């Protein structure tokens, strides 16, 4: 499931589907996944919390972008192109095309769940954010994913967060979320988070996540990091074997738009359905 893994990792998630048993496997006729949900996106033990403040997303209707991806882990490497669409506080939609512009997979992040459509293997897999947390060692949620795409603080901000001095004299934002501790450096001009470091003593002790943003440029009403590099290091849930993931996302086109694009997610008839 190379493309399933790439899709999830492209927004800080690693789907180890091939290492886990399936649950609620069914074969369906043609079906459309509703592009909305009633869930809050907040789950027990998630990295973000309801008290966290995120910037208002009232200056645009949607975000669209095209990007090149490079993904590497302990077993494989893969390059691909992707189209990204985001509906503020509601949806993140990604289409992956490894070669010749032919779509191999599609992903839909809703506030309460994630859906992966794998066209090569003719299946659709859904995940709760808690299920993803059990796989990758830290619990993301929709707020985390959206902030990553938009170049915002992925943990939001709370009154308890504070700036502390770094060894080089700069100031860094220190944040504590349940068993997670994170430090963030911001660009002094744009205030975009340019380096984010998080570690966990929770689900998989010692898991660390590092995020670097660069090529920060104006994009419509906002500043946006066009290049993102993320690394995840630790141990895989279950067998405790080493986990090392590297992902580079390089946006070639990005736009904040005032019209809402489509977010199509149709499951063709005969596709297998899996849920976690």
Summarize the structure.
By secondary structure, the chain is mainly β.
Features:
mainly beta; two-stranded antiparallel ribbon; 276 residues
Write up this protein.
The chain has 276 residues and is mainly beta. The protein contains three helices and 17 strands. The strands form two sheets. A 15-stranded mixed β-sheet has the order 1-17-8-7-6-5-4-3-15-14-13-12-11-10-9. Strands 2-16 form a two-stranded antiparallel ribbon. A hairpin with a 6-residue loop joins strand 11 and strand 12. About 10% of the residues have low confidence.
Strand order, largest beta sheet: 1-17-8-7-6-5-4-3-15-14-13-12-11-10-9
Write down how many β-strands occur, each being a DSSP E stretch of 2 or more residues: 17
Q: Report the portion of residues in β strands.
A: over 45%
Computed CA radius of gyration, to the nearest angstrom: 18 Å
Helical residues, percent:
under 10%
> Uncertain regions: pLDDT < 50 for 5+ in a row?
10-28, 37-45
